[in-house]
TrEMBL record, chains A, B:
Keywords: Flavoprotein
Cofactor dependence: FMN
Superkingdom, natural source: Bacteria
Protein name: Flavin reductase
A single MF term (Gene Ontology): FMN binding
Coiled-coil regions listed: none
Family the entry assigns: Belongs to the flavoredoxin family.
Length: 193, 193
């Protein structure tokens, strides 16, 4: 594994999502893996950390999540903006070699079958907390974060370090129609840094 | 009402939240109004637009939401960073004049009792979709957006216009310990603008 990828304490895992980035969702089952983009993912609890993510019934990734009971939420960065838009625009059902065409490289961490997307800034390995009513009615899935990781070049000691990392590490915040915003300047209340 | 505040088509209301800003939640019941900050709010559906927000049982705002069945999610901006941090750090239960001390000014739009916070960039007036299990187990509330508004100096024709508005209009993205990020540069896939 890339030596820059370090574990994140579960108590601080929520911070990877707290600023509302667009994420990638990966899942696998029966030898098939898929990755989709999701703007609608959010922290839900601190400890044990839980998150929500909206997975449309039309997505192939959702079927893999339902069958395996696991998914990974990862925080992509500016260097991956084309990849992020591509995995969000193409379906594995239509394009069997979607991941290769989108330039997605997968890796695994020990003890977990669900693959992670290489090149991201942070990763939350999640176990589905089964809530069939939410899943059916709202496409809303709850995951308990069982393991969290981050690239120490942009997140270390429990903090994002966007200001010292290069612009390619900024998180992505999708709006619509191919338009994203990158995260901007850090502001600490009472002082501007 | 401030003439800059214009209605947002419900079809495009999700765009006010899609980039993951920290929000303010306001509610009223029985002559009492409160406002809190929430980093954990997210779009849930396009049409009719629905959103989620996590409201801790310890907050006074939650009690007003439960009693009235309504709340407003509003998107604050850099000019309101102190206000946002203050309403998120103080409880109406301890500080009866919380809103005055935090510099919160409220206004109403016709047909809706729930007050809006003046000076924000966008407002989503929401009716609670009752889901007692989610509310009790996860502090997770679902709201259907019944009316949406934005300040045309930063959001118009269904689009954020951060790049032409001043830096005081940038949305806030909270991490922890008083640290926020402002939203940054717009990037359209395939071109940098």
């Amino acid at each position: 594994m890339d030596p820059h990828i370090l574990p994140v304490e579960l108590e601080k895992a929520y911070r990877l999502l707290n600023h509302g980035p667009t994420v990638l969702v990966s899942a696998t089952h029966g030898g098939v893996a898929d990755v989709m983009a999701a703007a609608w993912s959010c922290a839900l609890d601190f400890m044990p950390p839980k998150i929500t993510v909206v997975l449309d019934k039309a997505t192939s990734t959702r079927a893999l999540v339902e069958r395996s009971g696991y998914f990974v939420i990862q925080v992509p960065n500016m260097a991956q903006i084309e990849l992020t838009h591509a995995v969000g625009s193409m379906s594995l059902a239509d394009v069997p070699d979607k991941l290769a065409r989108c330039g997605v490289e997968l890796f695994r961490v020990e003890g977990h079958e669900t693959p992670l997307v290489a090149g991201c800034s942070g990763w939350l390995i999640c176990k589905v907390v089964p809530e069939p009513h939410n899943q059916q009615t709202y496409d809303l899935f709850i995951g308990e974060v069982v393991s969290a990781w981050a690239d120490c070049r942009v997140f270390r000691n429990g903090h994002w370090e966007f200001e010292s990392a290069g612009p390619e590490w900024r998180s992505l915040h999708y709006i619509a129609g191919g338009t994203f915003y990158a995260i901007g300047d850090k502001v600490v209340v009472g002082k501007v840094s």
